[in-house]
Specification:
Largest sheet: 3 strands, antiparallel
Radius of gyration: 22 Å
Strand content: under 5%
Number of helices: 13
Shape: globular
């Protein structure tokens, strides 16, 4: 069940672009962001009344980055780019999580990870080849939105909380409230959505926001940011497939090649470096002479060929 919830969240998020293309093209992107977040937060709090599970500053920061700013940028990208292109740009999330952990936690990536990162960047270059004429504002918005959710994912993995549903509800509620004045300034007073837009709005509120965000927060607490950033790969896959099947979107062969390169680079991140030699931990009774006298001899490492190493893991 936890794995199913982890897989479900990015699949549902990948439907955002097709939903916009099918039902919401004539709606304001900013107001669509408000309608996606605010009703979902209110609904979850009605189902599960609870206090914010984080201190006020952390709660507001997370709501701004993970909901308000993210939704704003996401819908700019959704209205300016084909869903297949916008969704694939979100595949850079594992690369961004790796870079953020290096900068913030000092966890330097291996040469293998760096090589795969360069491959992923090359794939983005193919996807955005000049002949495809991508909208630069849409591209920047998609990459910035992915950076925000990558950072928010790291925050949620570090900060202690007990109630995933309450964290989801308060993020959506506060993020929606933050978007309200922005929508009023940029788009003016809202107009009542036309009947053909209601299926898209209902889908965004119930499945794409309330359910998907709860699944993500719940799975993140179980699996951690590294695994969940890899699971996010299903987002672009879902977006590409739905864009090609449901919308009149066509990709050139260099763009398909770019998509394949990006997806391969991200999937290969879970494979250890080909030059990394496996190590095993010794039990105390098997302590080699080179490790004798250490406080924790069981932590002394031995290479497969029997050569000792005094380094601790």
């Amino acid at each position: 069940m936890p794995l199913f919830l982890a897989l479900l969240a990015p699949i549902l998020w990948g439907s955002t672009y097709a939903t916009v293309g099918l039902f919401l093209q004539d709606q304001s992107p900013v107001w669509v962001a408000v309608w996606r977040a605010l009703p979902a937060g209110i609904l979850l709090l009605l189902i599960h009344p609870a206090k914010p599970p984080l201190p006020a500053k952390k709660m507001l920061l997370l709501s701004f980055c993970n909901i308000a700013a993210f939704f704003f940028l996401l819908f700019i990208a959704a209205y300016r780019l084909p869903g297949s292109v916008a969704g694939t740009l979100s595949a850079t999330m594992p690369l961004q999580v790796m870079l953020l952990r290096w900068l913030q936690e000092g966890k330097k990536p291996s040469w293998w990870m760096a090589l795969l990162s360069l491959a992923g960047i090359a794939g983005v270059g193919l996807l955005l080849n000049p002949s495809s004429s991508p909208d630069p504002i849409g591209v920047a918005a998609a990459l910035a939105a992915t950076l925000l959710i990558a950072q928010s994912t790291l925050w949620m993995s570090r900060w202690q909380y007990r109630d995933a549903l309450a964290l989801t509800a308060w993020q959506l509620l506060l993020g929606g409230l933050m978007l309200l004045p922005v929508a009023l300034v940029l788009a003016g007073p809202p107009s009542l959505p036309r009947p053909h837009a209601w299926p898209g709005l209902v889908w965004l509120v119930l499945a794409n926001s309330a359910l998907a965000y709860w699944c993500w927060v719940r799975a993140l607490d179980r699996f951690g940011p590294a695994v969940m950033s890899m699971v996010s790969l299903l987002n672009p896959l879902s977006a590409v497939l739905l864009g090609v099947m449901l919308l009149p979107e066509r990709l050139s062969w260099p763009q398909w090649l770019g998509i394949i390169v990006i997806l391969l680079a991200v999937m290969l991140m879970k494979i250890p470096s080909p030059l990394r030699r496996p190590v095993r931990h010794l039990a105390a009774k098997d302590t080699p002479p080179a490790c004798a006298g250490r406080k924790s001899p069981g932590r002394c490492l031995v290479r497969p060929n029997g050569a000792k190493s005094g380094h601790r893991s």
